[in-house]
Specification:
alpha+beta, four-stranded antiparallel β-sheet, 4 helices, about 45% helix, DUF4268 domain-containing protein, DUF4268
Length: about 140
């Protein structure tokens, strides 16, 4: 196992390597919707591309989540493996609404041999998520 410092260095190297290998400005938090953001997730066991809905106002969260549910069939056309979870528990203990796709290969942020597949998955999946958002942004924001 790694020390805390070694693990932090490996995680930092993972993300900087991703940025250098695939330099691109991602949408991520720049959706112009409070509490509505795209994220890359990587840990010891999994890698995911996520759309998180975590506005401080739970009613707003539900409205955005319902709006996305109404577009679910359209999103599944681009990302058939997408998962809608209205009760996703984060490691922090916070529950959010998360729409995500998980890498279907073995992955660990601590195994450099799995990084390339993860990076390619990130690029392909996030591009589809972003295109979906831009295509239906007006519908999503119309709550």
């Amino acid at each position: 196992m790694f020390s805390k410092e070694e693990a932090a260095q490996i995680r930092k190297l993972f993300w900087t390597s991703f940025g250098k290998s695939f330099p691109r400005k991602w949408l991520l938090y720049n959706t112009k919707i409070k509490g509505f953001s795209f994220k890359f997730v990587a840990d010891r066991k999994k890698a995911m591309v996520c759309l998180d809905i975590e506005n401080p106002d739970e009613l707003v969260n539900l409205l955005y989540y319902d709006q996305l549910l109404s577009l679910k069939t359209l999103l599944e056309t681009e990302l058939p493996e997408v998962i809608f979870d209205d009760d996703y528990l984060l490691e922090s203990g916070k529950t959010i609404h998360r729409i995500y796709v998980t890498l279907d290969k073995k992955f660990s942020i601590y195994n450099k041999n799995t990084w390339r597949d993860c990076y390619e998955f990130y690029v392909e999946t996030m591009e589809k998520f972003e295109l979906f958002f831009y295509e239906y942004e007006d519908v999503i924001k119309n709550i």
